[in-house]
Amino acid sequence: MKINYSIKLLGINEFEIYRNEIYRLFKENTQGHENKIVISEEYIKTKFCELENYFISNNLIFLGCEFENNIIGFLWAYERIFIEEKRIYVNSFIIDDKYRSFGIGTSLLKILEEIAKQRNIKVIDVSTSTFKENTIEFYMKNNFMPERIQLRKEIK
Questions:
Q1: All structural domains of the chain
Q2: Angle, vertex CA 50, rays to CA 133 and CA 76, nearest 5
Q3: DSSP-derived pairing of the beta strands 6-9 and 123-126
Q4: pTM of the entire structure?
Q5: 86: Cβ–Cβ under 8 A, 6 or more apart, which residues?
């Protein structure tokens, strides 16, 4: 099955129009970041405010995927310097569960790559949790390679 979706760069005005849908997707995704921790509503609201601040600072790439006048996914990225190299960092990459496997994620990444080329940026990076095997597999299929490992020790 194929769906007729569109992807476009969203500015603050479009963000305000789709605010509730974007927040719902953001909340669902954020709650799935950790498999041992319940993430509070307050934390989610704080992180969502960070997104708004990126719109204000203009250091934001926000690609929205629209289907039937609804946002069904988005990619939030920004430029950063990592060890003296200019990169684009993917902060949040969210596709509504009902619309996965339609090629939306790959399409969003291809558009982000074109933006990177236009800005003469050679690297896009992202981080994800190790338990998200499907997410890691998706990135690897799209030619992302492991670069760093974050380690954690719980103190009891």
A1: 6-141 (3.40.630.30)
A2: 45
A3: unpaired
A4: 0.88
A5: 79, 80, 121
Closest of 27, 13, 43, 151 to residue 94, by C-alpha: 27
Question: How many CB atoms sit inside 10 A of residue 104's CB?
Answer: 21
**C-beta separation of 26 from 48 below 8 A:** yes
Sequence-distant (≥ 6) Cβ neighbours of residue 7 within 8 angstroms: 63, 64, 65, 66, 104, 107, 108, 111
Both tokens of residue 98? 């009902």
Q: Which of 102, 145, 151 is nearest to 126 (CA)?
A: 145
Q: What does the alpha-carbon distance between residue 69 and residue 2 come to, in Å, rounded to a whole number?
A: 17
Residue type, 52: E
pLDDT in tens, the chain (156 residues): 788 999 999 999 999 999 999 999 999 888 766 666 778 889 889 989 888 888 888 789 999 999 999 999 999 999 999 999 999 999 999 999 999 989 999 999 999 999 999 999 999 999 988 888 999 999 999 999 999 888 888 899
* Helix 41-57 × helix 19-31 angle, to 10°: 130
